[in-house]
Amino acid sequence: QVSPGLRTPRLPVWLCSVSGRHGVLFGTDSRLLSDWKCERIFHLYFYSGQQEQTQTAHLTIDTHSHHWEEAQSEDPCRPGRRCSALEMAIRTKWAGATVNWNGTVPFF
Q1: For the chain, which terminal residue's Cβ has fewer other Cβ atoms within 10 angstroms, N or C?
Q2: Could you tell me if 29 and 60 are in contact, meaning their C-beta atoms sit under 8 angstroms apart?
Q3: What pLDDT is stored for residue 70 in this prediction?
Q4: How far apart are CA 44 and CA 101, in angstroms?
Q5: Under 8 Å CB-to-CB from 33, ≥6 apart: which residues?
Q6: Phi-psi region of 89 (alpha: psi -120 to 50; beta: other; left: phi over 0)
Q7: Model-level pTM?
Q8: Spatial distance between the Cα atoms of 84 and 90, rounded to a whole number of angstroms
Q9: Do 76 and 100 meet the contact criterion of CB atoms below 8 Å apart?
Q10: How far apart, in whole angstroms, are the C-alpha atoms of residue 98 and residue 103?
Q11: Where is the Deubiquitinating enzyme MINDY-3/4 conserved domain (predicted)?
Q12: How far apart (Å, rounded) are the C-alpha atoms in residues 24 and 56?
């Protein structure tokens, strides 16, 4: 019998297979599961267990851009620049989201 905690997680958790490698993307705010208003700016963490990852990556996700911010910010996936496969996977759930790696060099 499956535990109710596995059927209905208390925290958002996604198992990812990106570019043939596996990892866990998770959040520590349970409101992400039930309150769409919490999806404005929120934090996710990613851990893959790969050698190049020495600690869990802390990502800040911003799902709403404003026209005055677009001119100042630089598109991380503009032509000529490679976009992280993990960022592209995150954008399958939150289209157009900005992913900030908070000082960590994107490794996945």
Answers
A1: N
A2: no
A3: 47
A4: 10
A5: 9, 10, 11, 12
A6: alpha
A7: 0.78
A8: 10
A9: no
A10: 14
A11: 5-103
A12: 10
Q: For the chain, give the percent of residues with pLDDT over 70.
A: 81
Q: 102 is written with which tokens?
A: 């908070």
For residue 18, the surrounding DSSP H or E stretch is: strand 13-18
Rounded to whole angstroms, the Cα distance separating 24 from 83 reads 19
Q: For tokens 């598109």, what's the residue?
A: 75
**Cα(34)–Cα(15) distance, integer angstroms:** 19
Residue the block writes with tokens 């409101």: 31
C-alpha 38/C-alpha 86 separation (Å) is: 21
70: which residues sit within 8 A by CB, 6+ positions away?
none
Which of 22, 10, 37, 16 is CA-nearest to residue 92? 16
Average pLDDT on 57-68 reads: 78
